[in-house]
Amino acid sequence: MTIYKCFWRSQKHLFTCQFLGQRRTCVGGGRSRLTAATTFTLLGREPRPCPSSFIPVRFLTISSRPTHTVPSTMNITNECTEFSGKDARDIFEKDFKLYNEFISEIESETLMKEVQKYFKGLRYEVDHWDDAIHGYRETEKSNWNEDNSRIIQKVRETAFTKSASSQLNLVHVLDLAEDGYIKPHVDSVKFCGNVIAGISLLSPSVMRLVHVEQKNIWANVLLRPLSLYVLQNRVRYEFTHEILSNETSSYLGNKVQKSRRISVICRNTASGIATYE
To answer: What is the pLDDT of residues 212-266, one digit of tens each?
Structure first.
């Protein structure tokens, strides 16, 4: 069971917050079931309106306000990330970034509308060419409509600095079925460089990253819809990453039920070395 500490802001009122892709009205001191298998208890002796945001003990953030732009200095590395220990934390502080609510609900809908045109009528595949994915559909796109081009550009500007080497023009779009999952793997160095940046759509999921040689160094990341993750340098090369199946998907001891999930992924070239703010 996860315990939350509530921090008041100036306005006290009921609000609707988003967690794991679902919305609910929060009242401190009571219980609210977020998924069929997950119950959280909020601190507080008597029911009262929740603040506009509240922060859990172990780096899990819920925000009641959508974010339409991302400040250049925004880096919430620890948010929604569970570490095996200090060694993992130190590596991820430097080479992993997670931006919750990187895009808005409206931007998510515009992306979905465009990619859905391609996926309509296609069946989900069971086997992948490198045996890394089960239950998926995928495509690569270089041309986007005007609205979505701005979203892709925002990803590029956030994940790559202007001094970074060339980025792959093709954007990878991966559609995972509800029963789909991604097996532990390290992206081939033949096809992409030291940066992988992906937007998560539709469903929450858990990404597990494990050090290739030292299996006791790992991190679990809760990828909420609308978020952007960035793997770079040591995290990109030295850790396998995977999207857990529903049979094993959990975060901080709580089950995370994944439904259909789409990711929109940008990468740089295999020979590229990118730098970061």
So the answer is: 999 999 999 999 999 999 999 999 999 999 999 999 999 999 999 999 999 999 9
Amino acid letter for position 184? P
Residue holding tokens 């009571």?
A: 30
Q: Which residues contact 130 (CB under 8 A, 6 or more apart)?
A: 185, 188
Question: What digits encode the pLDDT tens for the residues 146-204?
Answer: 999 999 999 999 998 665 558 899 999 999 999 999 999 999 888 888 999 999 999 99
0.85 surpassed by pTM: no
Asked whether the beta carbons of 180 and 263 are under 8 A apart, the reply is no
Torsion of CA 90, 93, 94, 97, to 10 degrees: 150
Q: Could you tell me if 33 and 39 are in contact, meaning their C-beta atoms sit under 8 angstroms apart? A: yes
- The residue behind tokens 């970061």 is 276
3-state secondary structure 90-151: HHHHHHEEEECCCCCHHHHHHHHHHHHHHHCCCCCECCCCCCCEEEEEEEEECCCCHHHHHH
Confidence (pLDDT) at 78: 57
